[in-house]
Amino acid sequence: MPEYRISVDQLRPGVFIRLEKTSWFDHPFLYNSFKIKDAEQIALLRSLGIREIICIPERSDVLPARKSAGAPAPESALPQETLDRLWQVKRDRTRRLKEKKQRIAVCEERFTLCIRTFDAILRGISAGSQEAGQEAMEFVDRLSLFFLDDVESTLHLMNVVDQGESAYSHPMNVAVLSLMVGKEAGLAKDDMTALGLGALFHDIGKIGLPKKLLKKRGDLTRPEQELIARHSETGAGMLAALPVFPAAAVLIVAQHHERMDGSGTPGHLKGDGIDRLARIVAIADAYDNHCNTSDPNQALTPYLALSYMFGQQKVLFDVELLALFIRCLGVYPPGTVVELTNGAVGMVMSVNPRNQLNPSVVLYDADVPKKEALIVDLADEADLRVEKSIRLGHLPAEILEYLSPRTRITYFVEPR
């Protein structure tokens, strides 16, 4: 049944409506489209001078009442304290979004500075510099300090990555994701350092490979597959030549493409024959490759990536570590774009640890300025839930720009 216009007098609880010709700033409702919950909401519409709205039958629990030929229902004034409470809820949501964006901005500045630092360290390691090896160990400590205390902001940046920085953001993503799991698993300090180093430099063996091969889309030939498969051994050899690198980190680089069922490379190791830290990096590496690919149309949302890994690739990974990885990120990790049951599109801002199917979501609304965008806690909204996740590559540019937590086009530059 198509949408149609009705009088406010026809409303009753359960009817789904959309407000027309009413600015989001002129009413205290959280949305311009919503399901009527009670008589108080109907009275509020009347008090705002709204006479007609659009009914959306397919999202309604009941249809509107028949139009009465008599006089319209008298307006009933709402208590001022009720209006004040509704407006305060709306202001609180806007304030929370502003604070979250400020934390993301700080996280992005750190992320950008770390990318610059990592670039220099990577060049030093490739040249066999012992000094660069020591700097790498200190760098891992900074990653833990900068990003593990605000996991949600960090995950946002990972999922809205600029393709121009992807060459450096991938190893950083894998390192931070691995360290998140390591922290949750209660690893000792030395193991955390080895884990961070192995994750950061897991692909260092690709440095000598042709860029054309690394960026190739589509299936690789058998010789190309064999050439790329050797990067694990090559990288491990490069790091082993630097005495400052822990042997555990070298082992991670050597084994990060091994798989639990023996289908991995280069040694076709199985199960417990694979180092536990390497198993963590294998999961983080696969996840980031699913989410951040050179072809945005092939990239999976964080939710779909986790679903695919747990549903279709479970035999490849340590199941206990994969479950721990999912617990760290949440069912709908921050940065996941979702469509809600009311048709609204939004991006997950934070995860509810006690109810992972109902995260906090910032909503897209063309009528609401980006700075005032609404955050909705699905755990508090009985009528709303996640309908599906949406790939970033499938979003119109204006929606992606609106929802993206990144606040600047150019990066923060550290003052001299």
From TrEMBL:
<dbReference type="Pfam" id="PF11871">
    <property type="entry name" value="DUF3391"/>
</dbReference>
<dbReference type="InterPro" id="IPR021812">
    <property type="entry name" value="DUF3391"/>
</dbReference>
<protein>
    <submittedName>
        <fullName>Metal-dependent phosphohydrolase HD sub domain protein</fullName>
    </submittedName>
</protein>
<keyword id="KW-0378">Hydrolase</keyword>
<dbReference type="GO" id="GO:0016787">
    <property type="term" value="F:hydrolase activity"/>
</dbReference>
<feature type="domain" description="HD-GYP">
    <location>
        <begin position="145"/>
        <end position="341"/>
    </location>
</feature>
<dbReference type="InterPro" id="IPR003607">
    <property type="entry name" value="HD/PDEase_dom"/>
</dbReference>
<dbReference type="InterPro" id="IPR037522">
    <property type="entry name" value="HD_GYP_dom"/>
</dbReference>
<dbReference type="Pfam" id="PF13487">
    <property type="entry name" value="HD_5"/>
</dbReference>
<dbReference type="InterPro" id="IPR006675">
    <property type="entry name" value="HDIG_dom"/>
</dbReference>
